Sequence to fold (331 residues):
Amino acid sequence: MTRWVQEFIMGKQDVLSGSCKTETVTAERVRNPIPEAVTALAAGFKGGRWASHIEPVPIPSKEEVIGLVEQAQRILFPGFFSPDILRPENLEYHLGQQLSLFYEHLANQISSAIRHDCFRHNQACTLCNERSYEMAAALIEGLPAIRNLLETDIEATLTGDPAAANSDEVIFSYPGLFATMVYRLAHRLHELEVPLIPRIMSEHAYHRTAIDINPEATIGSHFFIDHGSGVVVGATTTIGDRVRLYQGVTLGALSLPRDAGVRLRNVKRHPTIEDDVIIYANATILGGETVVGARSIIGGNVWLTESIGPDTRVMLEQPRLVYFGRDEGGK
Fold:
């Protein structure tokens, strides 16, 4: 090693050593903010002023629920989302193995959700484990019906989107189908009165796709969301069969008073969309009394707060476009 290299290394060590000493001295002189912050935060949480989960019961795991969504996807679309090579001979074994794991994991998460809900509302939690397995079993029994509905959703995608090459492409890559799959699972759990988990599932779908479908909404067969980003379907929305939505569509509620969260919780606040309706990009349809009649077409950017009858087209007037630049003669 040459002399200048040795000197360079020694110089670096001196600088680092001096820096560390300086930082240590500085840190010792700085006021420690942690004890005061801990006291203030703990007082807020323990006093009940801020929401927290300081409770002697488990809470559902968001990571586990996301894992359940992925596991359900492998069950409903075998061979697409797992490295296993499936053949007709080993399909039943594969499904049995996946369903057994899914059943146990789902029952555990439902049990946590029930216990948490009971504790939060000061209810006596009775037979939590038994109820959780019954709910998990009911969802599993409904998987064939859910899968049949998803097949109609795939058919609707292939019918409505010329860019969809085949069902494989739709299953692998269409965000609308993923969001619809999660909705159909979450909706069934909502019907079974499973707390909390359906909303965790729908939030995960929204995070992945920017499509927000409340698990309480009612959606018929052959449902197709094209592109999808920004679609919002509110809790009391009712959607019929063969309905197509484009990106940015909002099926929402009218402006509500401040106490609406409790007073209007079980009141229909979102629109009804009947069969064979098409709603184009960025249309907004609001209100629980608003009904869009069958076979109607809602144009892009329309704002609708009143009902329309069947076979109606609602469009904005064509705006006047103004062009700036050279004319056709190049002058």
Summary: The first strand starts at residue 212 and ends at 213.
